[in-house]
């Protein structure tokens, strides 16, 4: 067989794995079984970083720490690269959709009953939707973060404790 034929045969018989993370089932599909373990490890590592940075369901996430601080007024934090990247993308989505996508409506989402894992929320009896006004992007000064600053041992990396939001007052 030629190399092209070998690759075609692999592509016709892909190898896959599935795992649960961030509230969903993730599927890794590869055409070369040799890379499945490494590809899965890369995906799990990225999703663990994502969860630590932006999960509103984790009290220890960066976004939860920032939300606690913002409950007292204008807030700031030192952000990990992952948090800064996702925040920049969320603000971009808000701009290009004229606010149809709005990363600042967490309080309204929680007030409407989506304050836990979706399976938990679905198992509850129906709740009336709140009618009180909630802040939106228009009422926030949600500027994109500046380029990340690096601190630490001189290697250019930021340690997890340096990248977390300071505790709320």
Concise summary:
This protein has 169 residues and is mostly helical.
Biggest sheet, spatial arrangement of strands: 1-2
Biggest sheet, in brief? 2 strands, antiparallel
Gross geometry? elongated
Average pLDDT level: 79
| Alpha carbon gap, first and last residue | 68 Å
SSE-based structural type = mainly alpha
Word description of this protein:
It is a single chain. By secondary structure, the protein is mainly alpha-helical. The chain folds into two domains: 1-54, no CATH class; 75-169, no CATH class. The protein contains seven helices and two strands, in the order αββαααααα. The chain starts with a helix and ends in a 6-residue tail after the last helix.
List strands and helices in order, with pairings.
Layout: H1 3-12, E1 15-21, E2 24-30, H2 36-54, H3 62-70, H4 81-96, H5 106-111, H6 118-123, H7 160-163
Antiparallel strand pairs: 1-2
Output the keywords.
single chain; 169 residues; mainly alpha; two-stranded antiparallel sheet; 7 helices; 41% helix
């Amino acid at each position: 067989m030629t190399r092209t034929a070998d690759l075609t045969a692999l592509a016709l018989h892909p190898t896959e794995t599935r795992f649960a993370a961030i509230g969903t089932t993730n599927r890794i599909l590869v055409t070369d079984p040799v890379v499945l373990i490494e590809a899965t490890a890369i995906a799990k590592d990225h999703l663990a970083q994502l969860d630590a940075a932006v999960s509103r369901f984790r009290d220890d996430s960066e976004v939860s720490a920032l939300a606690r601080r913002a409950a007292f007024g204008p807030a700031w934090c030192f952000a990990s690269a992952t948090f800064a990247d996702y925040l920049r993308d969320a603000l971009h989505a808000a701009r290009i959709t004229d606010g149809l996508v709005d990363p600042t409506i967490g309080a309204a989402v929680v007030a409407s009953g989506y304050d836990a894992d979706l399976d938990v929320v679905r198992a509850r009896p129906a709740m009336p939707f709140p009618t009180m006004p909630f802040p939106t992007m228009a009422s926030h000064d949600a500027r994109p973060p500046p380029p990340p600053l690096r601190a630490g041992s001189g290697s250019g990396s930021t340690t997890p404790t340096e990248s977390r939001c300071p505790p709320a007052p």
